[in-house]
Design a protein that fits this description.
By secondary structure, the protein is of the alpha/beta class. 23% of the residues lie in helices and 29% in strands.
Length: 365
């Protein structure tokens, strides 16, 4: 549908228009603000507080960065909404023996909805972020296209599959056509204090990335699955676990099963509180069901179609058939893929274009 253009004039604000930038304090959002200023826009920085550990206002490093950029800064306290719409669903999915991806919930529910609403309250139509993704102009059916970023190693379109046409019509991704190395050079040339900053942590609201501890603190160990059996693919018990929430598909470490060859987690069965393990070849799956669907590049399909499917943020997309099944999609890979995981997102591509995606509910066979 959409071409790989970086975006025509009607997808960008006019030179006199203001643009709100989601300023995290990292190099990507800072360079996004810098590039927009260079195009002549009045830039307003919005810093959202979402983590329970946040004070609810921008910290000193973010304030210093906004001053260096020469842009006004507004703190947006979204902690309560983030708790209800991201953290609690995150906890519930883990409690059910699945592996959630909070970013795919945060983007459509928080960043591109509630944060943009704050921009609208300031009279600003446009919201820009530091995501490595691109928006392509509409063609025959009038749909905007969401494309991978030029830097495939940093591409973040996978996390954005939940965006709607309404979101895309007011969003700018200034870094979409840039490589990460180019972004760092821009930051260094501008003397930004974030130019040597490391990448952000894996889960923004868990500073130490210890999701197990966070889950147990927030949920309470008495509400989580307790000890249970670890069985192999033949059903033979080979060990015990201390809670299926501590495991994810593909995990190798922490199993403590004596063996001459490594075991991997190949299945989590919350109905029986069982962790199933196997060898690396047992991780490969061909078919699974996807629900909670969102379509961007095409209308909801009425029949089977072929697409490239990506099942994790760093998974290499692979050819598959998509077969509509009521409100779900049956995905059938041409070749079995490793570590297809319930709770993660499956995103459908045609070339660089995001057709849509949804959440993996059940792995078959």
């Amino acid at each position: 549908m959409a071409s790989a253009a970086t975006g025509p004039g009607h997808l960008r604000p006019e030179a006199y228009e203001s643009v709100a930038v989601a300023l995290s304090g990292g190099v990507d959002s800072a360079v996004a603000a810098l590039l927009l200023k260079g195009r002549g826009h009045r830039v307003v920085a919005l810093h959202m507080s979402v983590s329970p550990h946040d004070p609810g206002r921008p910290g000193e490093s973010v304030r210093t960065l906004a001053e260096r950029l020469g842009v006004p800064l507004h703190g947006v306290d979204l902690r309560r909404a983030f708790l209800e719409q991201v953290i609690r669903p995150f906890l519930e999915v883990y409690r059910r023996g699945m592996t959630p991806n909070p970013c795919v919930l945060c983007n459509p529910r928080i960043k591109f909805s509630l944060l943009r609403r704050h921009a609208l309250d300031l009279g600003i139509r446009w919201l820009a972020t530091g995501h490595y993704a691109r928006i392509a102009p509409p063609e025959g059916d009038g749909r905007l296209g969401l494309l991978r970023g030029r830097d495939r190693a940093k591409d973040q379109s996978y996390f954005l599959f939940g965006l709607t046409q309404e979101h895309l019509s007011h969003v700018i991704f200034p870094l979409g056509a840039l490589l990460k190395g180019e972004v760092k050079k821009i930051a260094e040339s501008a003397g930004l204090p974030v130019s040597s900053r490391s990448e952000s942590q894996e889960i923004c609201f868990i500073p130490d990335n210890d999701y197990r501890r966070f889950l147990e603190e927030q949920t309470g160990t008495n509400l989580l699955p307790s000890r249970g059996p670890v069985v192999d693919v033949e059903g033979r018990q080979v060990g015990e676990h201390d809670g299926i929430h501590r495991f994810t598909i593909g995990q190798r470490r922490g199993l403590a099963i004596p063996s001459s060859a490594p075991y991997y987690v190949v299945g989590l069965e919350p109905e029986t509180n069982t962790v199933r393990v196997g060898r690396r070849e047992d991780l490969r799956r061909r078919e699974f069901l996807v629900s909670d669907l969102n379509w961007i590049g095409i209308p909801a399909p009425g029949g089977p179609l072929e697409a490239l499917v990506q099942v994790r943020s760093r998974h290499q997309e692979a050819p598959a058939a998509l077969v509509p099944d009521t409100e779900q999609i049956l995905v059938r890979f041409q070749e079995p893929q490793t570590a297809v995981t319930p709770g993660q997102a499956a995103v459908f591509y045609r070339g660089d274009e995001v057709l849509g995606g949804g959440m993996i509910q059940q792995v078959l066979s």
